[in-house]
Amino acid sequence: MSGPDDGVVRVDEKKSKEEITAEFNKVQNEYYNSLIVEMKDDCETYRKATECHEYAKLMIERLGKFREGFEQYKKNCYEYEAGASCHSAGHMLLQGIELPDGSSPVEKDVPAAAELFARACNTTNPRSCVAIARLLQFGKFVEKDYKKAFEYLTTGCNKQNTESCFSKANCYLQGMGVEQDYSKAIPLLERGCELGHHRSCHNLGVLYYHGKGVEKDLDKFKLYNEKAQIFRFQKDPFQGTTKQHLGSGPVAH
Questions:
Q1: Mean pLDDT along residues 49-56
Q2: 206-234 pLDDT tens trace
Q3: How far apart are CA 65 and CA 56, in angstroms?
Q4: Mean pLDDT (whole number) for 178-197
Q5: Which of 42, 57, 154, 240 is the most exposed place for a label (fewest CB within 10 A)?
Q6: CA separation for the pair 56, 229 (Å, rounded)
Q7: Bigger pLDDT: 81 or 237?
């Protein structure tokens, strides 16, 4: 039976919900403020990419200091080769940051975002290889360059990023930046499907259905289609914002 000194934290039932919420928020804020100070000290002392990235992230998410966090991301990117910080800074520039009061601590600058994504791709964040490749493929804010986009996707795929491999396969399917070759898309899609990437399974099944790059095989079409449906409701290996595609033909980007 629990006693008064058994270490169990109890809520005073006489307190209102508002008071309890206020106390909880106070404790939480004290914790995060202490954590921010700790992360800042670790970043300045040890100059490690992970600690510096988390420090910038906390400044933005807990303190609402968007400009300061953005500048810290950039510093981490260029001084500490922190690919995650390069990607985060690039993402902020891609859309820009607008606050309810009408201020914009970070202005939209897609070419600058592209530069950061490229740097992230070539350092430690292969997810950014997809981001820079798509900007080059769309060519709306940066000069269109399918060949260069294909090179970035190859870099990401070589670093085991499934979305990069998937997008590289699409380049072969559509002849973007490389000669169209369905057979070369097959191993890339197989790799992605094995790792649980549902769109890779989907496209692979479609190729078997139509017999493009492989011998037509309706059993394999059914197999990969079933895998696609299973993986579709599981966590995507790629932590991105790509929309799901449910069409019957190869997914195109």
A1: 89
A2: 999 999 999 999 999 999 999 999 998 87
A3: 9
A4: 95
A5: 240
A6: 38
A7: 81
Residue-averaged pLDDT of the chain: 85
Three-state SS letters, the chain: CCCCCCCCCCCCCCCCHHHHHHHHHHHHHHHHHHHHHHHHHHHHHHCCHHHHHHHHHHHHHHHCCHHHHHHHHHHHHHHHCCHHHHHHHHHHHHHCECCCCCCCCECCCHHHHHHHHHHHHHCCCCHHHHHHHHHHHHCCCCCCCHHHHHHHHHHHHHCCCHHHHHHHHHHHHHCCCCCCCHHHHHHHHHHHHHCCCHHHHHHHHHHHHHCCCCCCCHHHHHHHHHHHHHHHCCCCCCCCCCCCCCCCCCCCC
Asked if pLDDT for residue 29 goes beyond 50, the answer is yes
Closest CA to 89 of 127, 61, 56, 58: 56
The model scores a pTM over 0.85? no
239 contacts 127 by C-beta, under 8 angstroms: yes
Residue 60's closest CA among 76, 45, 78? 76
pLDDT for 19 equals 76
Residue length of the chain: 253
Asked if residues 209 and 250 have their Cβ atoms less than 8 Å apart, the reply is no
Spatial CA neighbour of 192 closest among 203, 181, 208: 203
Residues 144, 146: Cα–Cα separation, whole Å: 7
Tens-place pLDDT, residues 121-171? 999 999 999 999 999 999 989 999 999 999 999 999 999 999 999 999 999
**C-alpha Rg value of the chain to the nearest Å:** 23
